[in-house]
Amino acid sequence: MGSLLRSEEMSLCQLFLQSEAAYLCVAELGELGLVQFRDLNPDVNAFQRKFVLEVRRCDEMERKLRVLEKEIKKDEIPMSEMGDIPDAPLPREMIELETTFEKLENELKEVNSNAEALKKTYLELTELKHILQKTQQFFDEQTSDKGVRSRRFSEVQHFNAAMNTYLSSEGSPERFETDLGFLAGVILRERLPAFERMLWRVCLGNVFLRQAEIEKPLEDPVSGDQVYKSVFIIFFQGEQLKTRVKKICEGFRATLYPCPETAVDRREMIAGVVTRIDELNTVLKQTTEHRHRVLVAAAKHIKNWIVKVKKVKAIYLTLNMFNLDLTRKCLIAECWCPVDDMERIHIALRRGTERSGSSVPSILNRMDTKEIPPTFNRTNKFTQGFQNLVNAYGVAAYREINPAPFTIITFPFLFAVMFGDAGHGLLMALFALWLVLKEQSLAEKVKSNEIYKTFFGGRYLILLMGIFSIYTGLIYNDVFSKSLNLFGSSWKASPVPSSGLYPETFMLDPQKQFTGKPYWFGMDPVWAVSGNKILFLNSYKMKLSVLLGVGQMLFGIVLSFYNHRYFGDRINILCEFIPQVIFLLSIFGYLNLLILAKWITYDSTQSGCAPSILITLINMFLYKYQDTPCSLAPMYSGQQFIQTVLLFTALACIPWMLIFKPYFLKKRHDAQKLASIHSSNTENHNGYNAEGDVAVSIETDAPSAGGGGGHGHDGEFDLGDVIIHQIIHTIESCLGSISHTASYLRLWALSLAHAQLSEVLWTMVLQIGLSGAKITGGFTMFVIFCFWGCLTVAVLLLMEGLSAFLHALRLHWVEFQSKFYKGDGYIFQPFSFEVILNNESEEVA
What we know:
This protein is α+β, with helices and mostly antiparallel strands. It has helices at about 1-5, 20-30, 50-75, 95-140, 145-170, 190-200, 240-250, 265-300, 300-320, 340-355, 385-395, 405-420, 420-435, 440-445, 450-455, 460-475, 510-515, 535-565, 570-600, 615-620, 640-685, 690-700, 720-745, 745-770, 775-815, 835-845; strands spanning about 10-20, 35, 180-190, 210-215, 220, 225, 230-235, 255, 325, 330-340, 365.
């Protein structure tokens, strides 16, 4: 809790590592994850650093592993889990890993190239088989049918006439002879129509094309895709047409195959092709099995290899941030580390030195610095989600109070005030509870989906929001827009009229029909059927919002006091904290007391004279007091005097915040300047070098605490800047307390909106199913209930839940944290293998 409330105390250290022990020492620190190294070579190019060759070797190994992993996933081979995360390998193991990866890559390349060549040959033989079969079918078509013969005869006559016309146009005296040339091949099915049109246009219709589809898809040996192709045969006469046809086939990437002219040769070739295909299938199967064995063997170790290579690369990238001392033959590093973990860091360095076999120990020295350290708050899986909410606004300044521990309670509670429905809260809590109970199995699955990962990361936050929503829903007595009568209503009905029926509406008299004992817990269920339900709940929730808002803002101002006291800034305590508290309590604290007094003092006998809190507050500022009517009469004796005192006290706080702080800062600056001059004169009198010592004296006397708000403490003092800054701060404090109090009314508004949406969904959707009867009514109820359930999840849980979440987030970021939280720090990012591996896995997913 102490580390979560304020960041860990950090120290800047200098680290001296012997060259032979540097690798293993950094590896031990990476396993520990408590050291943030600084780059001591910011101006040196990445390609000019000492360990750039080792980093390149790691990049090459990563490339080979990515190729290997891609092939394993392509064959859908399961990769073995690595169990315990392996340690970073020794430097000499890099050579073994490189040799292993090189051997696997070469073997895989050879197998893939052989498989690709075999598949290409197999494809060609398969296409040739289909060509021979289809052409054989074309030449062997049955001609016994007269219709077929006449059709073939007319086609041949037409083709002969076309060829004679073509030869005449070319000026050739020869006539068409019966022997024709032909070309056979295969082409992609989608290119066939364009291919046919091009043949017709270029050859002027003097070719005869027949085509047949190949039913089964063929595998592309390069891409592995399944493609559909068609067999074609083109008849032509003459070498000129043959040349044109070949060029068109080349343009459309059609593959031509030799096809014998006689049927006997074609049958012999088909038999040979089938035999070769069978032999090729056997070889291809053996090649595939060998490739599968290689990948299965690699899949058993690939996750371990990936982790090892990533660790080695991270170590060398870190070593590139160090300085090399050639005289001492050591590496010098600077790092931020938590003071409480210095002993653990020393142990890790000692262990790394022993593993390396070095006789010279590693040295870790603390350094004095005026740099602002990073912010480090220790979190666990429960508090991490709440800390992320705070860090989304801004990382806490070093040693500043962290709002996260308070957000654990206040955030889900304010969310529940707006989302107050026990039924919806129960659904939300059950969903979050499932995420919590199944977090081990879901942790890896959600990495591939950003939305699921967001819900999973905030599972404990959602669980608390659901639990608090159940609580506030029971306070409002609202369960899916319906009330529960658990303890019996405190109101009793009037006697039954003589007609035997109650009127549709009637007024309950609190003097006669109220038992005098309030409902045991939450709202009385009679309000659910009351005609003035909204008026009553509006008044209650609006006043409750003001009470909660002023209470949280006051708590934020109190936290600012602990910040000022911790940093030793008495000026901020006197000139900011005290007037802010007085201003807030004089107006809105008094408003809260009026609300509570009205609830306690006035009952049903005095309801007619109950004063309006809003009118009372307005009259306080207008200094307007009157005894009539009854509702404007004072609530207590001496009210005018007390309100006058409170009003003038609040007004006095404005110049208090505006004037006194610049005055005290100016006075302190003059005193520091006078003291430095006096010190300089004394040193000059004693014969010391004044220039350097005066600078040291000024740096020492200047307050280093962050409580001064940066009003020239770290630089030259400028009274004008201080005054302008204080004017802005005063306006924000005074007007902000008013606007922020009004902003908390969103608690009332969203609670009302959620309750009304839930009621509308019940009356306009589910009520339809409840009105049915018998079998038809049961079926209708089933359908309507499914529709109602979908709308409940989509609208009331997701949309309304997101709306309440965003409004609760705004109340914390603006209304609460602005009172004490600067959020101008930077987060502690240690060198940690765990963080590096998690980030890598998320990027891959």
